[in-house]
């Protein structure tokens, strides 16, 4: 079970190894996506390794025994969780293997290697890479880091919300990108424990509506195909733990296109000087594209969850 105490324990455990990222008011904008209220940006793109994923992976590492760490760690990722796991391996001084789908960013693959991880490409989507990582973990006795369905990882991601509400206790709406559902799970259960009236809005790509499809079906379903180019938001299915939390605590999930995310990433660079990947721009994309329209006068926190050069490269 994941509780507020679990999240607070995670926050204390990981504090020496992660950054307290800024929560900034997005003011003085040429093109404000929410002129009727206050837009706040939680800059997890400035987190260690460039995303919130460092919180969950570090919490996972520090929850393990020495023997579990030293036999080596392994994961599958669209990029950001892999970087966080490589960081955890660096902290734990152990070998790290990261399986990536072929759609993963070459930039992130290089960063993984720079962190000392062994990188293996497998399959066209995360789910295929993950099946191989699980098989190798079983065969070689490696410790597996799940990117979104491990309660310890979810508690680590929940520290993002804990920190945000310490910085601004009166946030009314949290807008959160969804890949497999780990970030929104941790944020939702933490926010609802501390500020029950706040609303949680998820954001998925139109080409990978993983949680949306499962919510409609009332059970975990596998998507027939992934058509988004955003590997970090491209899970074919969620897991029961994530679906249950989302069913209980998340008010709505909206869909954005890849082009919406590209435009938002360019806007974040132009307006704020922030270099984000497309997943990092997804929450802002929901506002800019009008997929989520907050009521006037609310304090809206958009999670800028990942760094990258997508806007700069014009991808």
Task: Explain what the structure shows.
With 315 residues, this protein is α/β, with parallel strands linked by helices. It contains 13 helices and 10 strands. The longest helix has 17 residues, at 151-167. The protein folds into 2 domains: 4-51 and 150-313, Rossmann fold (3-Layer(aba) Sandwich); 53-144, Rossmann fold (3-Layer(aba) Sandwich). Helices cover 44% and strands 15% of the residues. The protein has a 6-stranded mixed sheet with strand order 1-2-10-7-8-9, sandwiched between helices.
Q: What tags apply to this protein structure?
A:
Rossmann fold, six-stranded mixed β-sheet, about 325 residues, alpha/beta
Topology:
Elements: H1 4-14, E1 23-25, E2 38-43, H2 53-63, H3 66-70, E3 73-76, H4 80-92, E4 96-100, H5 106-114, E5 118-121, H6 126-140, E6 143-144, H7 151-167, E7 173-177, H8 182-194, E8 199-205, H9 210-217, H10 240-249, E9 252-256, H11 258-272, H12 282-288, E10 299-304, H13 310-313
Parallel strand pairs: 2-10, 3-4, 3-6, 4-5, 7-8, 7-10, 8-9
Antiparallel strand pairs: 1-2
Helix pairs in contact: 1-2, 1-7, 2-4, 2-7, 7-8, 8-10, 11-12
Uncertain stretches of 5 or more adjacent residues: none
Number of distinct beta strands? 10
Radius of gyration based on Cα positions: 18 Å
Order of helices and strands: HEEHHEHEHEHEHEHEHHEHHEH
Mean pLDDT, all residues: 96
Report helical residue fraction. Answer: 40-55%
CATH fold-level label of the largest domain: Rossmann fold
Major β-sheet, in short?
6 strands, mixed
Which percent range describes the beta-strand content?
5-15%
Order the strands across the largest sheet as they lie in space: 1-2-10-7-8-9
Distance between the termini: 40 Å
Give the second-level CATH assignment, the architecture of the largest domain. 3-Layer(aba) Sandwich
Question: What is the structural class?
Answer: alpha/beta
Report the total helices: 13
CATH class of the largest domain: Alpha Beta
Bulk shape:
globular
Count structural domains.
2
